[in-house]
Design goal:
Length: about 280
């Protein structure tokens, strides 16, 4: 009986070893098959890539631009180094994008291949927010960056920020951010940005605005008078509401102020106005 049990145990062990060997062989064969298929596909892909890099079908025929407002397509093409007729798959898109980003108006450029012969260039330009007087005029974007010198062909009608010196403006970057916030507050208060001609950064952190008032009597030449508006540095939203109230009260009387002082620390609830005909 014992001998029979031992024989059965040996047969079971042998069958188990045989099953393990078959499983190992099957796994090895599957791995070899997968490797062969992968190699075949890789070779096929390599052959296709080699063909694509030389086939006339994939010659660059067009570069399509999206997002342009100020930059010129011709200038961007020249800076990119792209040339029509070159193979689409041989083009160095990263280098071409860097070339486009060297244009002063371009903040970022993303290029994509669109076979058989097109590149799509998605351009993000700087968004101009104001002009800054620093000896010459520079353009300030919404992120507080001076990204180029202003030129007549830019066609920008933006508020001018003054009161910074060319030597110290980098130490006053926070003042530029504060000026941008002021522009946002001005528009949020219902005032047109186009009416604001100048934002002067005063000593002590305050602001003085020069803005056109379309209400009341016109100034010289029939144009709306440009008012000098002293805001100071605190409670800007409240002071702009008070500005609207002062202008409305004067307009009801048919008058207009040449200067409005809203920065009175002793009496913050009061405003002083100098009438245009009594200046």
């Amino acid at each position: 009986m014992k001998a029979m049990q031992m024989a059965q145990l040996r047969r079971a062990n042998a069958e188990e070893r045989s099953a393990s060997v078959r499983a190992a062989i099957d796994a090895a064969l599957r791995t070899l098959a997968a490797a062969a298929v992968s190699a075949a596909l890789g070779f096929g892909a390599w052959q296709a890539w080699q063909w694509g890099q030389s086939a006339p079908l994939f010659a660059l025929r067009e570069v399509r631009f999206a997002g342009l407002a100020h930059a010129n397509e011709g200038e961007l093409m020249a800076r990119s180094g792209l040339a029509l007729g070159e193979n689409l798959f041989r083009v160095d898109l990263a280098r071409a994008a860097r070339g486009m980003q060297s244009h002063p108006w371009v903040e970022s450029a993303r290029l994509e291949r669109r076979p058989p012969g097109t590149i799509l260039a998605s351009i993000a330009e700087h968004k101009p927010a104001a002009l800054v007087q620093l000896g010459a005029l520079y353009v300030l974007d919404e992120q507080g960056r001076l990204f180029k010198r202003a030129a007549p062909e830019d066609g920008l009608d933006l508020p001018l920020i003054t009161g910074l010196s060319r030597e110290s403006w980098q130490d006053q970057q926070l003042r530029l951010f504060a000026a941008l916030h002021l522009l946002d507050t001005w528009q949020a208060g219902g005032f047109a940005l186009a009416a604001l001609s100048e934002v002067r950064l005063d000593d002590g952190g305050g602001f003085t605005l020069f803005a056109r008032d379309g209400a009341g009597s016109a100034g010289a030449g029939g144009r709306p008078l440009v008012q000098e508006i002293r805001l100071g540095s605190t409670d800007i939203s409240l002071k702009l509401k008070r500005l609207a109230q002062v202008r409305a009260a004067l307009a009801r009387r048919g008058e207009q102020a040449a200067r409005i002082d809203l920065d009175n620390p002793a009496r913050p609830d009061q405003a002083a106005a100098t009438l245009a005909d009594k200046r």
